Amino acid sequence: MFNILNYKFIKKAAKIILYILTSALVLVIALLFALQFKSVQTFISQRVATYLSNELNTKIKIEGVYFKPFSSLVLEKVLIEDLEHDTLLYADELRADLNLQGIRNREISIEQLTLSKTSVYLKKQLDSTSNLTFLIRYFSSPKKEKSPNSFVINLTKLSLRDVNFKYRNLLKKGEVDGINFNDIHVNHLNGDITDIDLERHIAKGHIKNLYLKEKSGFELKKLNVLLTVDSNRMEFNRLQAVTNRSNIGDYLRFDYKDISDFSNFIDSVDVLGVLKNARINSKDIAYFAPSVNITKFDVSLNGRVKGKVGNFGGKNMLIKTGKTTYLKGDVNIIGLSAIDETIFDLDIEQLSSNYADLGPIIKGFSGRNNIKLPKFIETLGYFNYAGKIRGKYYEFQLKGSLKSSVGMLGAELAINLKNNYTYKGELITDNFHIGKLFQNKDLGDVSFSSRVDGHGTSIEELNADIDASIKYLEYKGYRYSGLSMNGNVGNRLIQGDFTIKDKNLIIDANGSINLQKDLPLITVQALIEKIDLRETGLFKDSLTVQGDLNAKFQGNDLNNIIGAINLKGLVLRKPSYTTSIDSLVLEAKWIAEQRVISVKSDIADVTMNGEIDLNAFPAYFKSIAKRYIP
User: Fold this and answer.
1) Which residues 6+ apart lie within 8 Å of 172 measured at CB?
2) d(CA 582, CA 411)
3) What residues form DSSP beta bridges with 402?
4) H/E run at residue 554
5) How confident is the model at residue 148 (pLDDT cuts 50, 70, 90)?
6) How far does Cα 372 stand from its chain's mean position?
7) What is the pTM of this model?
8) Per residue in 511-556, pLDDT tens?
């Protein structure tokens, strides 16, 4: 009997268990079938949203949900408000493409998360918390070791389609030029991010074809980069960034204490960049550093830069700007935030430019349209400079050599462009065409070394103390060698001590040349050891002169001079004879609109009126000498 009852009990129990299992299976099948319907999924999601709204004391709304098991999840018209009932997030559509093959290993993979027509609004509150804090606190649990039963969620790709982002720091008020990092509004954010890592970094991913526009006017037209963001660093590898007027590549890194340093980007953020065919426009820099807005430049860059924007250096830089200007070398710039106080420290391997390019470049970098370069620079044509330059854009020291169409000029000078072009230092030339530089046909090449201290660049403005040793100077076709000068040039007046030790002219003199009028006024006292008038091109006949000279006359040719020339101990030498004269006074003056020339000497007194050719004077004097000298 027991066995029969036991059997019946077991059979009955089995039927009940089978019924329960069958019912459970049917229920599961029915539930899964029901979940296939969007209306059911939406109903459940709305119930969850209502629950979270009550829990968080705010509004959370989802208008539509569609879940395709093991494949995708779509949320439509998602709204999350903050505690002040301002929009925190609104998404027209959030779509997640899923891969649940690893779910047995408690791993969920989101192969692609797409945010379409999404707006995110973040605020930093007056109590220094954010409008996101309440969500973080709700979903955060006390720090502890991860449970072995925890799910791991991997995100492979994030796609942004017309995303808007706003951030407002209520602790900071006031308008600023450029991007206000306390009041950011990014529109039309589009792009894809792959290889995402949110475990070891705040954010890491490969950004492709990212576009955005900020309310300041800054536009990122295209960004391709492997980006890593940490609490104190942003790193941009394989960078290709195109903005309003600039493009940057290939590597860039920002180092900072925290993200708030970007509100003082120019002085607070360290930059390391390896630039390849980059182009930088000052207007784009001004979005991040508004003080740069007074400058104007557009340069292409290759090389390595390091430091803060306000204080950075570049190694092996290749910089191109303007139409033809080219710079190769090392660059250090200190204090860019205040352009008038900015120090440029340049070690230049080669700087090539010309007058037409250099003027606008200096005006652009300085932000001053009233700066004018010396006109003589135009006569240099295309020039190449190699050496060092250190100082402000208007006051600097240079040491190097300049090669141009008029020759080579070595310089070690301190220059101030604001203070009437003051300069002090040393100049060295070799085969320098000074006549072309100053547009004087009588002057040719010069080679000299000189100490100079003065101001002005044109003959009208020039005022300088000069101590020069002149290897040679070409004048009216003759090359004088062995010259030296210690004097002053100023107010169109040249004065000082002069010596010449040329094979055809040996003289030790002091005096002045006044160029204030059409014809030069010359005052000179000189000891003439030798002057060959024919070889130097001063006379046609062969004649050398020796003696002491005291003269004051005006003119630039023997036939227009007016004044007096007093010669003592005069010795005249012709190939066939020599004549000595103790004293000879030559005086030329105008009397009743007629030129009168008188010669007084210990051998004869002569007065001549009318049109007189002094180039024939040596022959005339020769005939006089033959008559009176035995």
Assistant:
1) 182, 183, 263
2) 47
3) 385, 409
4) strand 544-554
5) low
6) 19
7) 0.66
8) 998 888 888 899 999 999 999 988 888 777 788 889 999 999 888 7
